[in-house]
Batch of 4 targets.
Target 1
Amino acid sequence: MTLNNDKTKDTETDTDGNSNSTAVASTGSPEEAPADFDKAIEAAGFGRFNLILFVLAITATCANMFESTTMSYILPIAECDLHLTLTDKGVLNACAYAGMIISAIPWGYLSDTKGRRKVLVCGYFLTCICVLGSALSQNFIMLVTFKFLGGLMVNGPAAVLFTYLTELHGPKYRSHVLMVIGLITSLSLLLLPVMAWGIFPRDWGFVLFDSLEIHSWQIFLFVCAMPTLISGLFMTVLPESPKFLMSQGRNVQALRMLQRIYRINTGMPVDTYPIKSLVLEVPSRDAHKDEVIYTIDEKTGDKMGPVKRQSRSLLESLRAGMLQMRPMFHKPLLGLALQCFTMQFTIFMGLNTIRLWLPQLFSSMADYESQFAGEDVSASMCTILEYSVNKTAETLTNHEDACSVPKTISIDMYLNNIIVSACGVVGYLLAGSIIRLIGTKSLLTYGLFISGILGLTLYWSINSLMTIIVSSAFITVACISISSLMGAVVALFPTQLRSLVVAIAMMFGRLGALSGNLLFPVFIQIGCLPPFVMVALVMLIAAVLSILVPNPKKATFT
């Protein structure tokens, strides 16, 4: 990226007649000189406004994670109400990811043309409607439809949230935003089994409007809709990203937003905000191949009118996006991109298959141990899977007898899921120290190999304690590996392609999660070994590919 301030001056010093330096507008006093975004957001300070953003991060991250994870907790208890087969359970776990995959490009277009705030407000309110619809669902088709629509809606705000939060923090705090969001993500996954523990055992069933039967699992979904509603309400009072406004040439509005942030953070009047004007980012010349350029024009706030970028059609935006993507289809980026996308697909396929099926496995384990309490029987993984398959088949073939007594879930199911989620939080807290000790690439490779071995080890689990230990270790190590992979992607790709590569990588990851959750119940019905061979195989494929990924510390791309 090249920042040009004075083209004539740069032409005198550069042999190619084009600037390749970073220049800062310097006429007038420092306070009068137009400021770039980083300088302007730093001048706004760090305080109450950032704490408000932290609260938004909590509710919004919970909303994002709940939408893709809640199904795994209601499957054991909604089995009788919805007449679910094993395949139905796989579809319910996967349908939200299908919606996310389909909506990735449209949401990205809306975010870059309509603004971050509009996507976050509309996205969370629409997601809330879909979650409430799923909570009122009376059959499998209704629930699948609303979960698919929920994935369709939540993908926009989920993708834009991180961009919005980072754009409202100065360079000093941006690296901490990723850490905070990652920690909140782990805590939100810990919150779900706690909420399930508090709601599912209650006898809260009733009939609404003389036609809608409401059970405890539907009340659980109602509660899970609250973070989306709160996040949408939060966003109605928060400002648009000043960075986005500057990218659209709307510097007057951007300056007003920065002044508002300054007043909230410091309590000082807006006229004491030290930045009086912002640089105007407009192209000054044709870019060279793979180059993005901007000019910093010295314009004061009084003279600066709202310069709006010419609107483009969706087709024109897609054509521009394809031109931006062109370098990714040539060496050396093509091979690297294919490696990263394949790794993301396989890691998500292994991780989310186990993660989303664990509540069902723990529920079957608790039922089995309760039914055969006092007998000398082994709760091995194969025994539990066979028991789960037979129990589901019995529920379908003899529904009245199997479901005559309300479904009760042992407390062990909730405790086991809480233990697994808590291990994930601890693992994330330790990840930073491990990365500093052995490096991102080593952690990625070793973590994936260990995950593959642990995935296969689940097959030989001989009791519930071993299942908890192995599954906790598998999910924790795999989650850390995903963080390492995304860190490597950011370091290895050129700046103008990083956001695009991350977005495509996440799309491949969701496709992997979708595939794994559809295949897992099919393999279970074939036999005990195939599902765990699938999980181990995809993790080991990712491990082998990670060996070929360049060390991010030695990356030459910028």
Target 2
Amino acid sequence: MDAAEMSKDDPWEVSETETPNGTVHHDVQNTGLHDSLQLHHLQLLFDTFSQQLSITGHSQRRVRARNTRHPADTLSLEQFRSALTTAMGEESWSDKMEELFRELESSCDGRVGRETLCDCVLQQLKQSEDTSEAELSGISSEPVIRRCLRYKQYPVIRIVEVSQPPPLRYITVSERGTLTIWNSQLHVIESLELCENAGEKGGSSRQFRTWMTDAVYMPNIHKIAVASMSRNFHLVDVSTSTCFETFHLSGLRHVATALCYWYNVEAPGERCALMWGDEKGTVNLLWFLQPYKGLFETPFSKQSGPHQVFLSDICGQTSMIAYQQSPKIHSEPINRIRYNPRTDLIATSSESSASSVVIMDMDQRSDSYIWKIEKGIRCFDISWSLSLLVTAGLDPDLRIWDRYVTSRPVAVLRGHRTTVVDVAIHQDLGKIFSYSKDAVLKIWDISSERCMKTIPLRFPNVQTGRILGQGNFSLLLSMAKAPALLLSCREYLALLQLQNAASNGGSAAFSCTLYRPHLRQVEL
């Protein structure tokens, strides 16, 4: 029975019985001889080859005059063994020398040429460089690409990571309201069609006519909130092996265009917040004051399907809900929103030139930081601890900003050929991941501000000159036990495994510190 058949009965068994990736781990002690040959060994081998040929040249001159089958720059097994021992200065590889000799003996005449050995060593060095480059970039595997047939070429608008309850799952949301659950190896477990109206059952034959804009995972209550163009939220329960809709939160003043969620990890039962920016540039916060007791006060109903609640009604439930908003922060729709609970600051962005990025205090207790960037920006990410802001606009360039300096960027990263649609900062690895409209992933080193690796993702739907229909949130940086990077391209999904920060050497050591008193900031 294959994994697809098993998932029909018990989707969770797929994760348990899947065949793992075909990754082979090589023990250092079993390294081959050619793995240990370095560039300085090549020069020694050249010299040793010449010496060996010079020593044997006089004694074999008559033989070579009668038999010219062997070129002058070839060696027999004994000469080859002597040359390698001289070059490497040890005989610990004696058991491997004959194995390497037979591997290089392509002509089956009992001799190995100098050029053949050099080609082998250079090829091995190239592979070592590629491996070293992969380690520096933080990528530890080739991308795994999957297609979701149920999306019917509608793009994925958001990828979310669901780690609790285990096992790890990824959930994608399509533009037309289809949720697909994937296991950690990107095999489909199940799909769910969102209901258009409250009271309907998911997966009904009626066509879903509205469009989804964004989605966010709410870990402490095991739900996903999906925003739609109908000015409502679909709340989907993902606490069990089968996901289902629980609520329709309707009556929003404007369409939610970017979502964010926060809860206290140390006290998940305390108040938590669903935050969103909308099409009018307004920032909204909906606080759930007793999430374990319930999100809303709803009367008992025998109706099947999700319950419908209205924002205007629940705002009066002061023991359960608190709602606040800051209107017209941007003159354009908000396309990203981030929250810092330590300082109670919210960062938002839009394509407005007058308010491209705004970092504000919801209670208006301090002045806002406002970045004014020509033509605005499409996406950003921020590391609050590093005071680092990365933005991308309509041009292909990335810009790195100091969190406290809005006048000009610290650096401009050039290399993409098309507009960057999403960006993420990996603080532990010291990397920035940027993903452009032509399905090209670039990995940048923060300290050196240079590109470490470029990965053109070979999605089957990528064609020269064809405009790809990508969602606004095409990249997910998964910080699970096995960190990964997930990227979408229309109905396709790619998974790249990342190195753990510990295997990458952890955080870089610093040699000095600088304190700026006017900013109350310490620089390492």
Target 3
Amino acid sequence: MDPVPQSKEKEATKIDIFQQVLTQFIHFDKTNGSQDQNLELLIELIDYFEHRIREYPEYYEIFNNQFLRKIVKLLESTQYEKIYYSLTFMNELFSKKMISNRLINQKGNERQILELINDLLSLEQQLKHTHFELFIHRIKQVILPQDYQDNEKCNKFIKVQKEVQQQLKISLKKFQEQNNNNEFINMIQNSLCKCESVFEQQQLFTHAIQNYILEYLLIIKLYSLTDQISHLSQILAFYERLVFKVEYNLIVDHNNIRDPRYFILKNEKYLLEENFGLIFKGLATLLNMILQIPFNEDLNKRAFYIIKQLYLMYPEYQNNFIGPITLVLRNISQFALKEDSQYKDTVIFLYNLIHSSQLDEQVKQNLLKDEHLCYLRENKYFSVKALALNEEEIQLKNLTLPVFFPCFTVIQAASIYVYSINVKKPFSLVYWSFRTLDYDIQFGLFKLLTVDDYGIQDYVGEKHGIVTMMKTQRVDSHKSPVTIVTIMSTAGFYRIVFDNSYSYLRAKQLFFSIQLLEPK
């Protein structure tokens, strides 16, 4: 796209293209990846219009009542693929302030906005646990009246937040008085484990827990370095689970072929981009304390991964990260051996920094000559050929992911509970672990064509196009936790169904951790 408009004719052409692509998008043409291309072009054009709408007022006319009707119509279908593209498009559309204000405040759009709100509220529960939960949350924040938002927050979130803050305040005071008391960490864990989804955990962690973590870090600064390590490790685990993605290098045995692949643990972690300002102070304090403990290999390796992600996610601030990157690389370098494969990512990252065209030449020379980084530079992976080298990989059959902070729900008697999974890449892995208190439960895994709510007979009978991936089976999950790894060979919309329909008298308390790993 030409960033500078040349003429009125050119702008009229862009409007025509937008209208044509929007029509194709609404008619849902999936041949040869057309829908993906249409979505990409629509998002590009919306961004273009948003930045030039003051200069060219005719752009306002694109986003009229007729346009809004088309948008609302997108959500009439409950087919998963249509919902996927529709919500992805709407998430981008309503993130544009000028355009969204036009759609919301234009006279005559009230009915369409109300229909859109109702559709989103209906989809919110059906798409719980997927990244669409955040999309819907974002759109609701834009289009819902402020008094409705305040009322909803008071009912659902602020009450819980205040309770957690009060409990943390008490436990932090006890921790300060009794030194190495673990009550504060346990209180955070227990609060997170009462949430029903990772999204709820993220919101609680960001808005209710952050300030108390900062106070906690300031307290343990007074401890010896040795005493600090266990506390820092536990706090770091919160950020690893709820904020930053994690990579695993695994071997998948597919048709007797050992296929090494990188997988990224996905918890729909959009928290960082949404609330980075709220978590930065506590995170920066945590990382600074870890970097001052160079003799602890584990903490420094984990800190490196977080700093690396920040460096890659915020290119405009890359120069600000050079100091922490250099320090953490120095700390790690003392543990690295020439033939050690566990430092592959670290060494390749250093190699790419030194050969980057974006970094200042003096910075690159400093990294190249720094004597404290010599062990990393001498490692076998410090080479452009590094990615072609073979090494030992973790076997999938031995894979054990940390459960961290499980979610919790109560399944009422004669009811079911579903966990929706949006698998975007073929051969993704779903790692799930669950347990119940006191009584057993049935469970199964299914692939769906729509996002509709169904009863257990629909799932078991494979009605409405439902495909059984794992038949329902009854397990004594109250005696020992159940852990399952499933390879999803195709992309699509899946649901894990926890079935308590056979129990007419007893509700079941379910703790669960369900993690999606996508091929990199």
Target 4
Amino acid sequence: MAAPLMEELSEYLGSPEPAVRLILSIFLGYLFAVVYRKFLFHQSPLVIHLYHTFSGLALAAFNFAGSQVYHSALCIVIQFLLLRLMGRTVTAVLSSFLFQMSYLLIGYYYTATEEYDIKWTMPHCVLTLKLIGLSFDYYDGGKEPSQLSAEQKNGALPEVPSLLEVCGFSYFYGGFLVGPQFTLRHYQKLVSRQLSDIPGELPNSVLPAMKRLSLGLVCLAIFTIGGPHYPDTYYLTDEFEAQPFWYRCVYIILWAKVYLYKYVSCWLISEGVCILVGLGYNGTNEKGEPQWDACANIKMWMFETTPLFTGTISSFNINTNAWVARHIFKRLKFLGNKLVSQLATLVFLAIWHGLHSGYLLCFSMEFIIVNVEKQAMVLVKDSPVLTKLANSPLYPLIYVVQQFIHWLFMGYPLVPFGLFTYDKWLKVYSSVYFCGHIFFFAAYLILPYLRKALVPRKGDVKRE
């Protein structure tokens, strides 16, 4: 009964059936959240864990019927056994990391196609980070507090969780399909009714949740309307290749904006679910006002207005970036080189996304762009001429030019991210003459000479 109905609905909406099932599942999170608030908020942890487990399994079965459902269950059980049997050891952390990542990558290998497919590996990549993070947090729980950073203290687990607790954490309907990432310690606070602006009582989170839902619906509408006008398939047509160079560049900008709303809309709608149950509670600000951004995966104002690549990265996929910073980048401190740690982190992110060459190219371009931009920002700060220009009445014009460059070269690395395979993204890059590579490699070579010309030497400054 459900299958024909979903076929008819997807045909009516003009969207693939897996995409329709996914977005319906994200909206179903609000129904589960209302049931939780109405009937289960004051229930025992056992009941709440069971509810979260079976509601998440129901979403998994609705989206990935048959044998695909067992992948998540198997990885959760094995992760629990690793915690129980291997304890708080480096061996346990490494075993968890190797097993979970290997399972995910094998899944990619056997299921990947040349298109963006919604299958069991999509939520499983979210689950992989959760379970690896769980092993790190359990390991940190055995250290002295003085050895831990503030972030590690917030996530550290003082004792091994139960299997049911790990299941509830993993299958929680507000984060199982598309994120966000959160720690088991944060989930435990939800179950113990600590995540509320009124301790022990239902949080006053309906209005904040509806705000994020509304914003998510706006972004979903933009993607739904704009997507057919800026499809990634157009890149591969003779018509695109016949367009003038400026048109191809503008198309990359507009396509990138619309393309990212696919992710932004899902994150905002899911965040609303997390806020509604209380998981989004993040304490109070200096005015004593409750904050509901603990599960925010996007800072919309910053995302839309920043002219900086680092600003867009900081505002996008926030919780995943925070997870990678906490568990990968900062734990590579022993390498003694920040650039090497950054590069290793980006390689991890690329592999975590999938096995296509487009992911590696995207994140390698991010590495180059971010480091060139940092050098340029230091140059502007240290140069009196450039600082004066940046603070002059000409800044609005500079901002417009900066935004054009920013979004052109934000879209540029997204092309291989969206097209996946070598033959596709190479065709697009050839059509725009590898302008992104040329621009940033040229900037990398020129910036030291500009610094010599525009930044006064220390001796000159002292004489002045």
